[in-house]
Amino acid sequence: MKIVDLLGYQVLDSRGRPTVAARITLADGSSHVAKVPSGASTGQHEAAELRDGKITGTNSYYSGLSVTNAVSNINNKIKPVIIGLDINLNQVDSKLIELDSSERFTNIGANSTLAVSLASSLAHAHSQQKSLVRFFQPNGKLMIPMPMINILSGGAHANRGMDIQDVLIIPIGAKSFSEAIAWAAGIREAAAKLGQAKGMLTHLVADEGGLGIAFNSVNAACEFVIEAIGSVGLKVGQEVSLALDIAATQFFSENNYVLASANKSYSGKEFVQFIVNLVNDFPIVSIEDPFAEDDWQSWIDFNQIAPKPIQILGDDLLTTNLSRLERAILDKAANAILIKPNQNGLVTNTEHVVRKAKEARFRTVVSARSGETEDSWLADLAVGWGAGQIKVGSTHGSERTSKWNRLLELELIEDCEFVNPFA
Ligand code: PGA
Ligand code: ZN
User: Fold this and answer.
1) What pTM value is reported for the model?
2) Which of 195, 314, 327, 344 could cross-link with 334 by S-S, CB 3.0 to 4.6 Å?
3) Is 423 a member of any domain?
C-alpha cells in the first residue's frame, strides 16, 4: 500500500516542552501518527535530538526548545524521498540512513527520524491488518513484561531533592501483570500517605509521576519505600523488591561521585564499595547506571564483585547503541540494557540492539523517557520484541498510564504469559 502523505508537526510532551510528531497517510485514506519522547538526564552518546535554540516569533516562548527545524526536515527532506513508496518499515529506515549517515543523526535529528520510523511501523502494521505488537511478533504466545515502577524521584527529575534519580519497585511475586500494577498503585498511594504522616511534602510529583520527596541519603529513601511496601501487607524481598536508577553521570564531577544532599564525595573505587553496600543492605534486584557513562572501569570492577545475582543495567552507559553494547558484552561491564528507541533514532536499529543483547544473555528493559507523550507504542514494542521488562515511570500521569493500560489490554485480549525474570 502506497504512502500518499507525510506530515511533521510540533506538539507538547508531558513536561510541556515541544516534541516532534509525524503522520503518515496511506492510499486507503488511513493515517498513522507517532510522537517522540525526550529525556532530561540524557546520555552524551545518545542519538542527537535537534532543537532550535534561540528563535524569534511564537516559538520564542519555548526558550530555545522548539523543534521547528526537525519538523521542517520531515516535511522538506524526508517527505520527498518516501512519498509514493509502498509502506515498508525496513525501507523507510534505510532511506533515513541514506539521508543522514552520521552516527548520531546529527544532521536531520533523531527526533525527526524516530517519529517517521515509528509512524512507518504503525502504517506498515495497518497495511498487514495487524496490531503493532503482532506486526513484530505475528504468531505464538506473547510475553507481557515485568514492570519496574517508580515510587520516589530525585536528580534531574525532581529538582535534586534526592541525589539518585529513582527508587523503584519490582513486583517479583505477582502472578499477572494486572496484579503487578495493582500492587504498584497501592504502594504508590501508601507512600504518599506515609510521607504525609511524617510531615513530608508529598504533593510534589516528579517528572515521571513519582513522589519528589527530599531525602538526604539513599538508605533513608530505600527504608521509606520498604515501609510503604510493608504498610499494604506485601512481603519485601519475596513479593516486592527494590530497583534503583542511580543516574550517576548526573553527579560525576572531576572523577568523583558527589552526593550533594548527603554532603559526601567518593572516588570511583569508593563508589563501587558504596554500591556494593547498598545492594547488600537492601532487597535490591536491579541497579541502573550506578557509575558514570564513560567510567567503564568502575562498571567492570563492580560486575566482578557484585554481591548477589543482581541486574546491572546500562542506560547512559549503553544509550541503546550497538557498538557500546558490544563493548559492554566484551568487557563484562553490565548484564542488562535499557532500551529507549529515541536514544537510537530508528525502530529497526533499536530492535537489532534488543536482539544482540538477548544473544549475549543480557536482560532487556524497554523504557520510556522522563518527557513522554500519550502514545502507547512503547508497550507494543516491549511485548512484540519479547523484552521481558518495562520501565515507564510511576502509576500517575496519563503519559505513564497509557503504556500500563495498553499492557493491561494486551494481557486480556491476547494469548500471553506474564514474564518473571526474577523468579
Ligand atoms: P530520562 O530518564 O528520560 O530523563 O533520561 C529516564 C532514565 O534515566 O531512565
Ligand atoms: Zn536511567
Assistant:
1) 0.98
2) 314
3) no
